[in-house]
Design a protein that fits this description.
The structure holds two protein chains of two kinds. Chain A contains eight helices and two strands; from the N terminus they run βαααβααααα. By secondary structure, chain A is mainly α. Chain A has one domain. In chain B, 58% of the residues lie in helices and 14% in strands. In chain B, helix 15 packs across helix 16. Chain B is an alpha+beta fold. Chain B has a six-stranded antiparallel sheet with strand order 2-1-4-5-6-7. Chain B has a five-stranded mixed sheet with strand order 8-12-13-3-14, sandwiched between helices. Classes of the chains: A mainly alpha, B alpha+beta.
Chain lengths: 211, 636
């Protein structure tokens, strides 16, 4: 069972988690828009639909992977990762199911970078590298200390628009005018998540099945 | 003193203890018995065995036998090492017409090895010690520690250190009387002797009763405790009063708002009626549009909630994960990853002599051996193998986000159209005013109802607090009442304890005086007119010509003082004495002999043959004794 303790995360993600936490405790009014009017906006925050506070962290982790399509840094680069993130939050929850899926995606990405084993090459070296990589990503401590901070940070790095996480925070209350919905409405975010996932599959997984 | 106790010993039979085997038969019709025994024939062993039996109950007897200055000393026979032994001592005695037989049986072995190994040990390896006490030839039989309880009631056990007298005991008393550092032993002995048992038992019972009451109350029922409870009750009363005032204030607020709600509802009803009465087509349309808009808002919100609630599930349910399982299968196949179970096979190949392939039975040359060794290093660890063979967990749900988005967009478009239509409705100023007023009133009603809900919650919380406080107050009042009642009982207990303490003091003083007088009389009789003795709460002094001092008297005088002290302290009358006149001057032996005859209903003396002169004659005027130095003999 992979249980998360205190993890380092980007401030944007920490802000979203704290907001959901406050809303779940009934402090709703604080986050309603200044001009809030029940005729113009939704009355109850959509963010209350998250079952657990860790759910946005998992989503951010996958978005970071889908967008960056990068392999995680090696263990000795932990210090560098620590410096990149700036918030932390304590969870103590089980994320086994999603950790396993995530690691399967990471393995596919690793195969995309390193190729399948080939009997003509140095298969002994290939096996050693493969074992090292799988050992590392299956280590709970590494997952908590490196993988989560690394990919959640990636999910918040946007150049042309506001990050998915930042927009997710604003999706709590959106109005009913079509032009106001922009990129923070739940339906837009849902579509974006699916598109990102599709691109990862098209780019990484599908080609591996053709080999 | 002679008639103070009717206890008489009838026989003492020793079998096996420390290798001694003898029986002392005592004639019930005779008061004096003299046994002539050579040195090292068991005199001291007998006295110490009797003290051991009377002083230590069955469960506490092991390791508590002492002999001369050896403490502990062995009880088993060391002439038969490592053999199973059964040692028995049986003591017959009578009191007030009832016959008693005490018996202590000790089973075990004596081990030389253990004796040498353990400096503090005795070499005894005791298997069991068992006591029985039979009354009137079996009409009552007691066993175990109960035996010692009865010996206590008969006053035999508390007197064992006095009526069983020997040189060692005499030396102890001389030391107590002469050495300031040892006088505390005397004080303890006197206190034990003169403290009335029954009063001590009563005091113990009163203490137990007092403790039971304290336990029941959970406190010591002090005046301060009562005041604390009284103050606490008053605090609670004040808190209840305050809470009730707050409750009334909230109830008043609720009433005010209920009146307002009623008033506004009437007004809304009135306005609705006016609006309906006007029957304006626009108004009907407005009602209809408002209804549709609200329905649409609810539908859109529900669809969006559904999207946020399922964002995470989308990740594990949208894709064909079998493809990833195929990729992993591909890696395992192409990489020919040696599986963990292969390790055993490789070991068998390498460890066989000569190294041989377990599968094809071919002997491995050096190059093959190196390859196989390298292969062993490349076996996939279990967790990696598990990861590569595991299926990807998937949720079998499907989310058609495109369809959902399309529906939301359609709803939003309709919503905008309806809002536009609503805004374009041209209502007259009067109708507009009516509608606005009605909407305002409705909004106000909602606000008031929400406030009423909040206040009702507060009232409920206060009511539950008041209930709690009332319950607490009730408990405290009950406790206070109990305290008052028990206080009276406790005061009575304290008075009774005080009375017992005073009585104990008085009895103690009186008992010490009586013992002191008896002691003085005895010393005076034996040592002559110049001599006397005095016992106080913290001293035992011999006096010569009215000068009482710890240095008065020679060895003989001090021995007599010890004798007389032991006699005056015992609560049973017989005296059993080992080597009675060893260090006593010939001049006082006869007087001591007369004194013992006069003062005790039964005298049992274990004498050396050299002690008979001047001492036995007064006891046995007929001189019909038989002396046999080999066997234990009793003299008539």
């Amino acid at each position: 069972m992979a249980t998360l303790g205190t993890i380092k995360i980007p401030l944007e993600l920490q802000s979203l988690i704290e907001r959901i936490s406050d809303e779940k405790e009934g402090m709703l009014d604080e986050y309603k828009p200044d001009d809030f009017d029940s005729k113009k906006y939704n009355e109850i925050s959509f963010l209350l639909q998250f079952n657990r506070l860790v759910d946005p962290v998992i989503i951010a982790m996958f978005i970071g992977l889908f967008k960056s399509q990068s392999l995680p840094p090696e263990q000795e680069k932990e210090m560098e990762i620590d410096l990149e993130v700036n918030g932390e939050y304590e969870f103590n929850v089980d994320i086994e199911k999603y950790k396993e899926l995530f690691n399967n995606y990471l393995l596919c990405l690793w195969i995309k970078r390193n190729g399948y084993p080939n009997k003509d090459d140095n298969i002994y070296l290939y096996r050693e590298e493969l074992y090292d990589f799988l050992k590392e990503i299956n280590d709970d401590d590494y997952f908590e200390k490196i993988i989560i901070p690394f990919y959640t940070k990636k999910s918040c790095q946007e150049e042309t628009k506001r990050s998915f996480i930042s927009r997710l925070e604003d999706s709590g209350y959106v109005g009913f005018k079509k032009e106001e919905l922009s990129m923070a409405s739940p339906e837009f975010l849902g579509k974006e998540l699916i598109n990102l996932q599709d691109k990862f599959w098209e780019n990484v997984i599908m080609p591996l099945n053709l080999e | 003193m002679k008639n103070s106790s009717s206890i008489r010993f009838s026989y003492i039979d020793v079998e096996g203890y420390r290798g001694r085997n003898f029986k002392l038969d005592l004639d019930p019709s005779k008061s004096q018995h003299v046994f002539v025994m050579d040195g090292n024939t068991g005199k001291t062993t007998l006295i110490e065995l009797l003290r051991w039996c009377f002083n230590y109950k069955e469960s506490n007897a092991e390791g508590n036998f002492r002999h001369m200055f050896a403490d502990p000393a062995h009880v088993m026979d060391w002439d038969f090492p490592d053999e199973e032994q059964e040692c028995i001592i049986e003591i017959g005695f009578s009191k007030k017409g009832q016959d008693y037989v005490f018996k202590r049986t000790t089973k075990g072995t004596y081990s030389i090895e253990k004796d040498q190994e353990d400096e503090k040990g005795t070499g005894d390896m005791i298997e069991s010690i068992s006591d029985t006490l039979e009354i009137d030839r079996g009409s009552e039989v007691y066993q175990g520690d109960k035996v010692n309880e009865i010996l206590n009631e008969l006053r035999i056990s508390p007197s064992a250190d006095y009526f069983l007298f020997d040189g060692e005991r005499a030396r102890e008393y001389m030391l107590y009387a002469s050495d300031k550092k040892e006088v505390h032993n005397l004080v303890e002995a006197i206190n034990k002797r003169v403290t009335p048992r029954r009063l001590t038992t009563y005091k113990q019972k009163l203490n137990e009763l007092q403790k039971r009451i304290y336990d029941e109350l959970g406190s010591k029922a002090s005046k301060q405790g009562q005041t604390r409870i009284f103050n606490k009750i008053n605090d609670i009363k004040r808190e209840i009063k305050k809470a009730e005032k707050e409750k009334t204030d909230f109830e008043d607020e609720i009433k005010i708002r209920r009146r307002k709600v009623l008033e506004f509802e009437n007004r809304v009803e009135e306005l609705d009626k006016k609006i309906i009465d006007s029957k304006s087509e626009e108004l009907e349309k407005r009602h209809d549009l408002e209804k549709k808009i609200n329905t649409l808002k609810t539908e859109i919100a529900s669809k969006r909630e559904n999207i946020i609630g399922n964002l995470l599930e989308i990740l594990s349910s949208e894709k064909n994960f079998n493809l990833i399982e195929d990729i992993k299968e591909n890696i395992r196949e192409k990489g020919r990853l040696p599986e963990p179970y292969r390790e055993d096979l490789i070991d068998i190949c390498l460890n066989s002599d000569p190294p041989t392939c377990e599968i094809c039975d071919r002997e491995l040359d050096e190059e093959s051996k190196e390859k196989v060794k390298k292969l062993r290093e490349q076996v996939a660890p279990h967790d990696i193998q598990n990861f590569l063979t595991a299926e990807v967990h998937k949720d079998n749900k499907k989310y058609d986000m495109g369809e959902l988005n399309k529906k939301i967009n359609e709803d939003l478009e309709e919503y905008e159209d309806l809002v536009g239509e609503l805004e374009s409705l041209d209502l007259s100023e009067k109708e507009e005013k009516l509608i606005n007023e009605r909407d305002e009133k409705r909004e106000k009603i909602r606000e008031f109802e929400s406030e009423i809900g909040d206040y009702e919650g507060e009232v409920e919380a206060i009511e539950s607090l008041i209930e709690e406080k009332k319950e607490e107050k009730k408990e405290l009042e009950k406790k206070s009442k109990m305290l008052k009642q028990y206080r009276m009982v406790l005061d009575e207990i304290e008075s009774a304890k005080e009375a017992i303490q005073i009585t104990k003091g008085e009895i103690k003083d009186e008992t010490i005086d009586i013992i002191s007088d008896t002691l003085a009389e005895s010393v005076n009789y034996i040592l002559g007119d110049d001599f006397s003795a005095r016992l106080t709460e913290d001293s035992l002094l011999l006096g010569q010509n009215d000068r009482f001092h710890r240095e008065v008297g020679g060895m003989s005088g001090k021995l007599i003082l010890s004798y007389c002290f032991a006699e005056s302290m015992t609560e049973v009358n017989p005296m059993i004495i080992d080597t009675p006149v060893g260090n006593i001057d010939d001049s006082v032996r006869e007087k001591l002999s007369e004194h013992l005859i006069t003062n005790h209903n039964q005298i049992i003396l274990l004498c050396l043959p050299t002690e008979l002169d001047y001492f036995i004659d007064p006891m046995n005027p007929q001189k019909e004794y038989v002396e046999n130095k080999e066997e234990v003999t009793w003299l008539l």
